[in-house]
Structure formats: structure tokens, C-alpha cells
Amino acid sequence: MGIQDPFCIAVRLQFASLLLTRQSPKVWPVILISIVYLAPESPWWLIRRGRLDEARTIMKRLTSARNINYDLEKNLKLMVATTEDECALDSRTTYWACLSGPNLRRTLIVIGIYCIQTFNGNLIRGYSTYFLQQAGMATTNAFNMTILGFVWCWDVVTLTQFSRWDLLPLFGRRTIYFWGVCLMFVLMLLIGSLGVPQAQTHESAYSWAIGCVLISSSFLYNCSIGPLTNTLCSEIPSALLRSKALAISRWTYVLTGIVAGPLTPYMLNPTAWNWSAKTGFFWPGPCFLSAIFTFSFVPETKNRTTTEMDLLFEMNITPRAFFKQHVNLTATANTNVEEVGRTLQMEKIR
């Protein structure tokens, strides 16, 4: 009995864990369906279908009570005007409309932002355990380092999400995103530099240093490039073409992953290219090009309404000058886009 009892307990625990593993996926749909049911409808979606009263109610629900300067009716009229203006400018909300006129530039910017997710060395972090193993770290330590980095990163990032809500109004999207790409360039270069002495001496200190830098790059990505990609890509396209522009850019991002993904195992595998930690030298180039692209083409969308973004792109304002360009929206909700554009041009001349 003394032997059978622990055995029975072990069998029951194993059965319970197996049952929990098989049944737990069934719990998530219930939770997600409940969240979706309680989530408010999009005011933009309601306005496009002429349901203004429902949109007004949802906007009241989404507006913070602390925001005493928020004019709900003015913003509602502005959203209606934006929808009407975009219907006039883009009578055909097709995929071809994303690739013509001012929308072409907006689509290309969104494509570039999505592709930066691949070009910043994200694939190395995807192979972090194998990467650290090839960098000289023991298999157990490499696995533990990956798990520790994953848990630590997500815990810290979850806490910093709340602080980033306050940082975004201060620094803006473009600034945080640009410096995130620049710091990623430095970290990738540092990983490659540490890989040179590690390959020569095989000292474990270099392997642990590489692991720390890799975890730091993951933390940096989750605090800047990762979340801001979705923010920028949802604010840059026009409201009517947003879903189609995001579909095109997402398809391009997947295509870059298909091309770049198979290269990473070749870089790391000792029977192939055998770059090990020196794989870090491959990614500063794409990071540098990403930084140039961000500085030259990614606009600052902080405190910009959808109508203002439409006007700035219609006027062919340089994206890096968006943050200092004044847009006069004293016009009423029925003001035509061309008339506001001429006002903007006159203010720029003055």
C-alpha cells in the first residue's frame, strides 16, 4: 500500500493534468465571446451607416470623465465630415484605390512599418534558444534563459503599458518608434560584436552577455516597435481604406517573413553558414535602412484627427514635417476638402 498510494496519486495527477490540458482550450472561447459581447461598437462603423444617435451614445461611453475639454458634438461632426470627404475623394473603396493618388503614399508607409517588424532582427528572437545554444551556452541554460526572458519581458512590458499611455502624448508615436529602431541597430551590432571573441575563446561570459543583450532587444521591441506598429498603421491610412491598406501591408509583411525566415536557420546551423552569434552582424544593415525610412517617411500622428491626416497627405506635406504643420479646421462639418486645402496652402505661404 505504501508503494501503491504514491503511484495512484501520480497517475491521478497525470490524468488531471492531461484532462486540464485538453479541456482548457474550450474555456477561452467563452471568455473571448463575453469580452466581444461587452465591447462597444466602433463609432466610425455606426457613422458610416447613418446611425448617429448610437454613435453619440458610444462616444459618451468611451470618453473619460476627466476630459472636460472634449467637445462631443464637434468631434461627431468632424467624424461625419471625414466620412463624407473620404467618400468624395475615394468613391471606389477598392484595393486599387489604396494604390492610386495620395493613398499610394499612405499604403507604402504602412507596408514599410510592417516590414520593419522583420527587418529589426525579430527572427533571431524567434530562435532564441537555438541561437544561444550556438552562441556557446549550454542547452539547459539556453532554454532557461529564453523562458526567463519571456516571462520577465512580458511582466515588465505589461506594467509599462500603463506608463506608455502617458508617454505617447508627451513624445509621440514617431519619436518613440524611431529611437526604438535606432537602439535595435545598436543592440544587433553589439550581439555580433560579442560573437567574435566568443567564437575565438568559447568563454561562457560572452554567451551570457549575448543572452542579456538578446533579452534587452526583446524588451525594447515590446516597448516600442511592436505595439506602435499597430498604432501607426491604424492611424496613417484613410478611414475608408484602412482595412484594405492593412490587408495589403500585412500580406507584404508575411511575404518578407517567408523570404527571411528560412535564412535564419542557415545562419545559425553549424553545418550550414555557421555564423552563430555573429548573425547579429546581418541585421544592423536592415535596421539602418529602417531608421532612414522611419525618419524620412513615417509621420507623427499624435494629436491628429483623421481629417487632418487626410488634408496633410492631400497637400503632399513631407511626413517628417507633420508635427509642426498647422491645420485650420475652423471650417464647419460641411467644408469641402479642396477649400480647406487652399486655406492650408495660404497659411503655409504666410
Automatic annotation (TrEMBL):
Subcellular location(s) per record? Membrane
**Keyword annotations from UniProtKB, A to Z:** Membrane, Transmembrane, Transmembrane helix
| SUPFAM superfamilies in the cross-refs | MFS general substrate transporter (SSF103473)
Membrane topology recorded in Swiss-Prot or TrEMBL: Multi-pass membrane protein
What GO CC terms are in its UniProt record? Answer: membrane
- Read off the Pfam families from this record: Sugar_tr
> Where the protein is mainly located, per its record?
membrane
Q: Which domain of life is it from?
A: Eukaryota
Instruction: Provide the GO MF annotations for this entry.
Output: carbohydrate:proton symporter activity
Give the residue spans that cross the bilayer.
176-196, 208-230, 251-268, 280-299
Name it.
Answer: Major facilitator superfamily (MFS) profile domain-containing protein
| Organism, scientific name | Exophiala aquamarina CBS 119918
The root-end lineage is: Eukaryota, Fungi, Dikarya, Ascomycota, Pezizomycotina
